[in-house]
Structure formats: structure tokens, C-alpha cells
Amino acid sequence: MEVITDQRFRRTMKYIRALLILGSIGLGLLVLVVTGVLIYAKVQGPPPLAVPQSSLYYSDDGQVIGESNNGEKRYWVGIDEISPHLIGATVAIEDRSFYKHNGFDFKRIAGAALADIKAMAKVQGASTISQQYARNLFLEHEKTWKRKLLEALYTIRIEMNYTKNEILEGYLNTIYYGKGAYGIQAASQYYLGKNAADLTLAEASMLAGIPKGPSIYSPLISEENAKSRQKIILDSMVKSKYITESDANAAIHETLSFIGEHSHAVTQIAPYFQDAVKQALKNDLGLDDRTIELGGLHVYTTLDTEQQELAEKNVSTHMAKESELQVALVSMNPKNGYVKAMVGGRDYVESPFNRAVQAVRQPGSTIKPLLYYAAISQGFTPASLVRSEMTTFRFDDNRAEYTPHNFNNKYAGKEITMAQALALSDNVYAVKTHLFLGEETLVKTAKQFGITTPMEKVPSLALGTSGVKVIDMANAYSLFANGGKKVKPVLIKRVEDHRGEVIYEYEKENERVLKPEEAFVMTHMMTGMFDKKLDGYSNVTGSSMINDMTRIYAGKSGSTDSDSWMVGFSPQLVTAVWTGYDQGNPIEIVAEKSYAKKIWVNYMEDALADEPIKNFKAPKGTVGVYIDPESGLLATDDCPIKRLTYFIAGTEPTKHCIDHLDHDAEKPTEKKKEEKKEKKTWYKRIFDWS
């Protein structure tokens, strides 16, 4: 028994000696590695401070249209020119142990790792101010091990070669505070109109919370989020003994006024368009704010500067200066989705809200082409007849009812064709068609056309009561214009990094989502709003634009109490225009109701002035016949009006119109009457005599 115990003891001691030897070797290697890293860091010396580079934005023809950072939004100030309140607030919330550690807070790292493991997700950060400053010296922000290793080396070099105050000064001058403000001086001037040295405790604690998420904690975006973040910072300052409880209480209740203006405003070409491009860089390409603003990117956009100038000119020309209506315009190439011009409002400086891509407004009757496309695909034709008269629809066992009205309460009082219903914008025809197809049909069709906003399954959806975005309507009509091929609004063609390497390039899709023959039948029907041959109980809705047109267009206007729309296209260009009040007030001035149409037709004419006049080409599977616009039947020589109308082959009318057979018949002369009288039968003559 003693022998076995002795053997076990010797074996155990052997393992212990092996572990001690391995541990010593490991520790020695670790010491060597750490020593090597420190020697390397010392030999390398102070890291070169990467100078932020402006990101440049180019138009479709290569012209520079914008620059993300022109030096007026970034100012370097010394540590003694920064409010002590701001310094305390930043250290308290970002890195309480900043003055104690040597670049890495290992206790904090362990705590963050434990929190992440418990949550099975990245929930807590552990980066020190030194690490964040090192990260800010990089133009690349990709999440790779190489970048993390280099960041760690930079952190060591920074800590070895700079004092804590120098590190803090650099950090506070490079951190991003949103809206193009880099550094605390730029942020102080943008948000509060004062220098960083003059910040009060309340102001400093508010600004210190922004860098965690400029799009979330900016007081100009969400006062509630900003105030909540401010309280957390003040509590941290109390715990770190920078301030007292009474100081914090006074600061949290102090009323602050924010300006939201840079000290030097910069005029840019197409500012609304450029904002949309930056959002696309962030949301679609996944780039962070710093890379977008200071990454030295070269962003090649789809903007046509001439068309942009024409769009802005026509908005200015055709909207009265005293009018308070707002406007949005999106113009696209329907073949590839390139956005050629964008207007998001009347004055970017007064209101940077981009109504072209952010506002959701009721489209009114501009939704009808999508409805009628669905009807065409289910057997309707341009000659399909539906009665136009005031109609009350009842639902849920007569417990609910809906009565759509036409403009000025005018109705045909008889059956009219789909072609005429579209040209006159007959609402009763639309609702009847919508209910016949089923309310779900238009909802699905809208998604098919790229409408991104939700559609409500209600009878009034046929009249455009569910909100849409202007850019989505331009995109939807592009599918008609290009024969049914899928497109999406494209703002960016290519992006290069600061080294000139391509990091993104747009690839055109070639998917067909509409049948070309059905798309063309609808396109030709949409030319009807400009054709007086379709006048009926009222004039066609595009009658006011006809005299300004020099080429064939297809389109549809629309209106609600607070919205005016005109969306239309040629084979080369599609444009959507909206005008209305931001708050949804009713448009009551008659002249203001025509702004959208005037802007649209004059812009289209100007933009296409140097382009060849092109007609819409009928694809295979369609046939064009002359019909009588009233009856929808094949026109005869006796019909006073004949309109060429296209149908899907096999669905065109086969019967001829008989409503006008005597229209041009010669009135009988007296001689002919006598001859006819003489030819009466004998019993008729006796009857006449008697």
C-alpha cells in the first residue's frame, strides 16, 4: 500500500514539475513577446496622426458636386481651451480609469467579456479613450483581427509617447458629434453657437453623450434620448467625484437652447440628393459615419447636374414665392434606375427634411395605373365597360358603407371604357374595379411595383389613400416605361476608398416583373390623359398641359385635399412631382393645385429638349385598332371620333360601333320625298286619301 502511494506521489510531482516548466516557458515567451512589442513601439516612436480626408461626391459626368469636410466643420483646440466640465463628463462616461491605466483597462475588458457571454451577444464595450483615439487615427474601420492588432499597437505607441492630457486633447478633437461636426469645438459651435471653453456643466454633459450615437442621442433629433443620456453622464460624474449631487440636479433642470447651424454654411449642388447618397452609403453599403465624412471616399453618383438645375429652376419658376406649399421631385432613367435629379424641398437651409425620400404622402389617383395593370392581367381591356354614377358600397351586412365621389361630383351616368375612366380619372370606375379584383390584389401589385410603404386593404385604396414615397412612385412608373423590367432607384454608381480601390460598384438587375404586352397596354392607356379624343363628361386630366408638350408622354395626375401629384414619363425619362403642405393642411388656393402639373411638364420638356423624340414601341403580343372612345367598339367610317387603342392580342373588340350610322347621312331633298311618296303601295295611298 505504501509503494502505491509513493508511486502516485512521484507521478503527481512529475506533473507539477512539467506544469511549472511549461508555465515558466510560457511566461518567458509572454515576457519576450511583451518586451518585443514594447521595444517595437518605442522604436517606432509616436504614431503619425492620420489627417482626415474629405470624401468627394461626383456627378454622372465626373463633376465634383460636394465635399464632406471642407475644414470649416473641424477645429483643433488645446486642452486648456476646453471646458473642464466637458473633460470631466467625457472621462466619467467613456473611461473612468483613464488616468490610471496604460492604455488598456483589463478589469473592464473582463467585465465586458462576461456580460457578452451572458447575453450571447455584443452588449458592452470596453475600449479606453486611448483605444478609441487609436481607432480614430485609422481610415479603415473594418472589423478584422489585423485592424484590431494594429489598433492595439497604436494604443501602446500613443501611451508610450504622449501624455494623458495630449491623448485626451487628440481624442476630443477627433471624436464625431454628428452633423459633420468633428471635435468638441465644431460641436460646441454647431449645437450651441459658443466655444468649447465656455460650456456650462449642463451643456457639457449634454454634448458628451452625443458621440455614443449621433443619430440617436443628438438633442436635435431626440430631446428625450439626449436628456436620458445626459442624466447617466451626470450620475457618472457624481460617482467619479467631478461634481456634487446638487450640481447634477441643477444641470439636469437647466433649459438649453440649441442652434443646429455650422458657423459657415456651405452651398452645395443638389443638397437633398447628397443627403440621400450619404444615407445610402450608411444603410446600403454599411459604412460608418466617420468613414463617410472623413474617409477620403470618392463617390460617383448618378446625378445629372443640368437636369438638377432644370428641376430647381422649374420649382422656383412655377411656385409662387409667397406660397407655403412644399415640393418634392424625383427624375429617373427608367432603363437603369439612375436618379438624375432630386428636389426634396423649396429651401434646404430652411428645411433639410427630404420630402423626396422621407415623406409619406397619399398618392391619390396616381395609384390607378397600378390597379388597372392588375385588372389588365386578369382579363380587363381598355374597352371594358363599367357604369359611372354615384354609388354607395355597403359592407358587413350593411353596417358600413362607402361612397366615392368624382371631381366636382360629375359622372357619366352611363357605362364608360377603362381607357376613358383613366383619362378622366373616374373614381367610381376605380373602386368598382378594385372591389371586383379583391382588395388584396392592389396591395400585392403595389409591392410588385416596388412600393415600400404598407398598403391598407380598404375600398378607398383604389383612390390612393395609403401613403407612398415620391421616389417609390417614380420607380413604379419606371416599370411601365421600360417594358416591365425590375429597377430600383440608384444614387451611387461606384465608390472608391482613399487609395483609389473600388469598394462598391452597382450591378444592374435584368429581372422582368411585368409582362411587356400588359405594361405597354397600360402605357398607351396612360397617354390618354393628354388626348382630347377621350373627353367625356369632363375634360381629360392633362388638358392644361397639352399646349406645352412637344412629344408623347404617358402619365397620371392625382390629388387629395392636401396633396397634388403628377407622375409621368417618356421612353427616356420618368419624373414624379408632389406638392403640398408638410402638416397636411388642405390646398384651397386654385392656382396652387396646378403647381405639380406645371413643374412636371415644363421640367420634362426642358430636360428632354436635346433628346430625340421617341414613341412607345408596341411589343409582340399586342394589336392596335381604332375604336370609338364612347362605346369601346371598333370604329366605323361613321364614327365622329376614332382613337388608336392597343390591346393584348386576342382581346381586342370584334364588334363594330353602330351608334353613329346616320351621323353624316344626307338629308332627303323634296324631290326624293316625292319619289318616295309615289312609290307607296296602293293601300297606303288609299289610307292617306281617306
From TrEMBL:
SUPFAM superfamilies: beta-lactamase/transpeptidase-like (SSF56601), Lysozyme-like (SSF53955)
Keyword check for Transmembrane helix: yes
Signal peptide per UniProt: none
Catalyses which reaction(s): [GlcNAc-(1->4)-Mur2Ac(oyl-L-Ala-gamma-D-Glu-L-Lys-D-Ala-D-Ala)](n)-di-trans,octa-cis-undecaprenyl diphosphate + beta-D-GlcNAc-(1->4)-Mur2Ac(oyl-L-Ala-gamma-D-Glu-L-Lys-D-Ala-D-Ala)-di-trans,octa-cis-undecaprenyl diphosphate = [GlcNAc-(1->4)-Mur2Ac(oyl-L-Ala-gamma-D-Glu-L-Lys-D-Ala-D-Ala)](n+1)-di-trans,octa-cis-undecaprenyl diphosphate + di-trans,octa-cis-undecaprenyl diphosphate + H(+); Preferential cleavage: (Ac)2-L-Lys-D-Ala-|-D-Ala. Also transpeptidation of peptidyl-alanyl moieties that are N-acyl substituents of D-alanine
Domain Glycosyl transferase family per the UniProt entry, residue ranges: 62-237
Parts of the chain that traverse the membrane: 18-41
Any matching Pfam family: Transpeptidase
GO-annotated molecular function: glycosyltransferase activity
Keywords for this protein: Carboxypeptidase, Cell membrane, Cell shape, Cell wall biogenesis/degradation, Glycosyltransferase, Hydrolase, Membrane, Multifunctional enzyme, Peptidoglycan synthesis, Protease, Transferase, Transmembrane, Transmembrane helix
EC number: 2.4.-.-
Penicillin-binding protein transpeptidase domain boundaries: 328-574
Subcellular location as annotated: Cell membrane
The keyword Membrane is annotated on this UniProt entry: yes
NCBIfam families with a match to the protein in the record: PBP_1a_fam (TIGR02074)
Protein name: Transglycosylase domain-containing protein
